[in-house]
Amino acid sequence: MSDERYLGYHAVAAYFRNVDSTTCTYPDFLVNINSRDIILRVPPPYTEEWYGLDSIWYERYLKEAKC
Fold it and tell me: What is the pTM of this model?
Protein backbone atom coordinates (compact mmCIF):
# COMPACT_ATOMS: atom_id res chain seq x y z
CA MET A 1 0.00 0.00 0.00
CA SER A 2 1.35 3.39 -1.01
CA ASP A 3 1.58 6.32 1.37
CA GLU A 4 0.85 8.69 -1.50
CA ARG A 5 -2.35 10.58 -0.62
CA TYR A 6 -3.04 11.45 -4.26
CA LEU A 7 -1.13 11.04 -7.50
CA GLY A 8 1.62 13.63 -7.37
CA TYR A 9 1.67 14.05 -3.58
CA HIS A 10 5.33 13.07 -3.27
CA ALA A 11 6.31 15.65 -5.90
CA VAL A 12 4.43 18.38 -3.99
CA ALA A 13 6.00 17.38 -0.67
CA ALA A 14 9.47 17.25 -2.27
CA TYR A 15 9.02 20.76 -3.64
CA PHE A 16 8.44 22.14 -0.15
CA ARG A 17 11.40 20.25 1.28
CA ASN A 18 13.65 21.93 -1.29
CA VAL A 19 12.49 25.57 -1.21
CA ASP A 20 12.40 28.41 1.28
CA SER A 21 8.82 28.32 2.50
CA THR A 22 8.78 32.09 3.03
CA THR A 23 9.46 32.90 -0.62
CA CYS A 24 7.80 30.05 -2.51
CA THR A 25 4.93 30.87 -4.85
CA TYR A 26 2.35 28.82 -6.71
CA PRO A 27 3.71 29.85 -10.16
CA ASP A 28 7.21 28.82 -9.04
CA PHE A 29 5.78 25.50 -7.88
CA LEU A 30 4.20 24.90 -11.30
CA VAL A 31 7.47 25.64 -13.08
CA ASN A 32 9.75 23.68 -10.77
CA ILE A 33 7.76 20.63 -9.72
CA ASN A 34 9.77 17.60 -10.81
CA SER A 35 6.72 15.57 -11.72
CA ARG A 36 4.62 18.20 -13.46
CA ASP A 37 3.71 15.66 -16.14
CA ILE A 38 1.66 13.94 -13.42
CA ILE A 39 -0.58 17.00 -13.21
CA LEU A 40 -1.59 16.63 -16.84
CA ARG A 41 -1.34 12.87 -17.27
CA VAL A 42 -3.87 11.81 -14.63
CA PRO A 43 -5.97 14.80 -13.58
CA PRO A 44 -8.28 14.59 -10.59
CA PRO A 45 -11.97 13.94 -11.22
CA TYR A 46 -14.21 16.81 -12.29
CA THR A 47 -11.43 18.78 -13.97
CA GLU A 48 -12.56 18.81 -17.57
CA GLU A 49 -11.62 22.47 -17.80
CA TRP A 50 -8.26 24.11 -17.04
CA TYR A 51 -9.84 26.16 -14.27
CA GLY A 52 -10.86 23.01 -12.40
CA LEU A 53 -7.45 21.43 -12.83
CA ASP A 54 -5.69 24.58 -11.63
CA SER A 55 -8.04 24.89 -8.66
CA ILE A 56 -7.36 21.34 -7.48
CA TRP A 57 -3.59 21.77 -7.64
CA TYR A 58 -3.73 25.21 -6.04
CA GLU A 59 -5.65 23.72 -3.10
CA ARG A 60 -3.05 20.97 -2.79
CA TYR A 61 -0.26 23.54 -2.92
CA LEU A 62 -1.87 25.62 -0.17
CA LYS A 63 -2.46 22.59 2.01
CA GLU A 64 1.21 21.64 1.88
CA ALA A 65 2.35 25.26 2.22
CA LYS A 66 0.15 25.56 5.31
CA CYS A 67 -0.84 29.09 4.28
Answer: 0.69
